[in-house]
Amino acid sequence: MFTAAEAERLIFTLVSPITSSETVDVADNPIGCLGRILAVAPLSPLDFPHWDNSAMDGYAVRTADVQTVPVTLQVIEEIPAGKLPQKALAPGQAARILTGAMLPEGADAVVMQEETEREVKPGSGSQTADQQVVILRSPPPQNFVRQRGSFAQVGDALLTRGQALGPTEIALLAAAQQPSVRVYRRPRVAILSTGNELVTPHQPLQPGQIVDSNQYALTALVAQTGAIPVPLGIVPDDRAEMKRAIAAALAQADMVLSSGGVSVGDYDYVDDVLAELGATLHIRSVAVKPGKPLTVATVEGEIGNRQLYFGLPGNPASAMVGFWRFVAPAIAKLSGHLGPWLPEFVWATATADFKADGQRETYLWGQLSASETGYDFAPAAGSHSSGNLINLANTSGLGIVPQGSQQIMIGQPLRVLTIRSTR
Question: Model pTM?
Fold first, then answer.
């Protein structure tokens, strides 16, 4: 049996990231770009900021004119955002300027309006050129000035190859007038459920039968990673049927997930079938609970590509824990993510006693919540049976009792694997 850490390291050595790419349209389909992985680092065609501009509502001035304050300057124009300045500042002059507006020629600082007093000559009406401003505080050079190119310059890499596109990255690409980018194609992950006892949610449930929830759980989990799930349904516990189904799955996917059929029962054919198909079995069990039966195999393709096969346990909690712990990180690397690919772990304060037998690394599901000092973790109420979907719902973390430990007491630090939520 591999430890969890050993299995994790081995799995990463088996994953070959996808290298083929495609173009996606950021401008017309930003939602479709969410989560996509950049295959090429986009370069900026613009300076950021595009020009010297004001970071504050106030007055553009020449610092040489405001060394001694208070000082009165003539206001020669008003410059809102989006307007090209019409005049250059001469000695003794200032320009009313608003946030984001382009600095006029000759100005080298902005004084915020709270540090000024506006004066209008008697009988002058509202003409800007006839107004004056009293500067009450002397600004340093470049005060409240966003200098051209200070954020990024033409030719700079805006983002990194292997980076996932989220809302902030999409906003940056739009601002840089990058309407399309190259991304890695999304991996296809085939999903099989094995077992004579399984039925679909649409079928009447007969005594001894079980609804195949794993097909739906794994489909949703794969979709959450950004990969394309390919659900292929239920395969009976028949060696020939299973061989055909697994071969068909390998023919249409970059990775295959099956649940059930990987333990030591009389009808657990997955490992034998994989061997018949020429696969190399690297892992057959892992010292974790739940999820000890775990098959990890590779199949070498005809054109030199390597496909990864995960045989997960049939119990729902075991299958999902195996996915969160081992499969999701493998999909991240397969997808071209820059890394790190590890699950996200945080330390939390245990709000109850967590017990284990010490033989395996034990995962107990529950709710992770923020507190004033960090995180708290509470176990889900009820039985932590690997077949209990009832209290697995609403899980936001897996509290970990390390292998060799039998208890983590209330109030002690507890390592928690965070679970991605759609909420």
Answer: 0.90
